[in-house]
Design goal:
about 210 residues; alpha+beta; six-stranded antiparallel sheet; three-stranded antiparallel sheet; 5 helices; about 25% strand
Length: about 210
C-alpha cells in the first residue's frame, strides 16, 4: 500500500502539458519579474544568438522581442545608467537564479541595430560615444570592455549606437578584471591585468584605439 501511494503521488505531480512545451535546447526559466511593473512576465525562446554564449532572443506573451542573457557577473546599475543615456537597451528584468548565475532580460536590438563597422559609421558617432563615456565615468561607473564587438549601430544609417555587455562593468575603484583577460587577440592598455582595478582611463584608451 505505501508503494502504491507513492506511485499515485508521482502521477499527480506529473504535468504532461508542461513537459511537452519545454524545449531541451533552451534554458529552463520561462518567466521573469518586470523591473517596470513588478509583475511576472512569461516568455518563450526563439533562438540562440551566439553558440559560445548563453545569449538568446525571445518573445513575451505580449509579442515583444527580448534578449535573455545568463551570466555570473553583471552590473545592473551601469547598464541602467547607459540605458538612461540612450546607449543601452532598456533593462526589463534582472534575477539571481541560483549557483551564482544571473538572468538578465533586456530589449532585443537585432531588428534595428547591427554589428559595428567603422567604414559605414555616420558622422558624429565618435563624438557621441565619447561624450556618453565621459558621462558614465562622471556617474562613477566604468564599462570595462570597450571594443567593437560590444558596440552596435543603427541599421538605417542614422546617428545612434548601443553599448552592450556589462559583465565587467561596475563602480569605479571597486570593480576588478576577471581572471584570464584576453590580451593576445584583443588590444588592451598595458596596465590591464587579471584581478586589478578597472579604470576609466582603460575605457577611454580602448575607445580611442577603436577610432584611431
Amino acid at each position: 500500500m505505501p508503494i502504491l501511494s507513492l506511485q499515485q503521488c508521482y502521477e499527480a505531480l506529473t504535468n504532461p502539458a508542461l513537459l511537452q512545451t519545454l524545449d531541451p535546447q533552451f534554458p529552463d526559466p520561462r518567466t521573469y519579474r518586470s523591473l517596470w511593473t513588478e509583475t511576472t512576465v512569461n516568455f518563450k525562446y526563439l533562438c540562440q544568438i551566439n553558440q559560445k554564449k548563453l545569449l538568446f532572443i525571445g518573445e513575451t506573451n505580449a509579442k515583444e522581442r527580448i534578449c535573455i542573457k545568463f551570466v555570473r557577473r553583471y552590473s545592473q546599475a551601469a547598464h541602467e545608467k547607459c540605458a538612461e543615456m540612450g546607449i543601452a537597451p532598456k533593462l526589463r528584468g534582472f534575477e539571481e537564479i541560483g549557483a551564482g548565475w544571473k538572468m538578465v532580460i533586456m530589449d532585443a536590438l537585432d531588428m534595428e541595430y547591427q554589428p559595428f563597422d567603422k567604414r559605414t559609421l555616420p558622422v558624429g558617432t565618435e563624438k557621441h560615444l565619447g561624450e556618453r563615456l565621459v558621462e558614465l565615468h562622471q556617474a562613477n561607473f566604468v564599462h570595462g570592455d570597450i571594443r567593437t564587438a560590444n558596440i552596435m549601430t543603427r541599421k538605417d544609417g542614422k546617428l545612434g549606437l548601443m553599448l552592450v555587455d556589462y559583465d565587467w562593468s561596475g563602480v569605479i575603484g571597486e570593480v576588478r578584471y576577471p581572471m584570464n583577460v584576453n590580451k593576445i587577440d584583443l588590444w588592451r592598455p598595458d596596465d590591464v591585468c587579471d584581478g586589478l582595478l578597472i579604470k576609466s582611463d582603460h575605457d577611454i584608451a580602448m575607445f580611442e584605439h577603436i577610432f584611431q
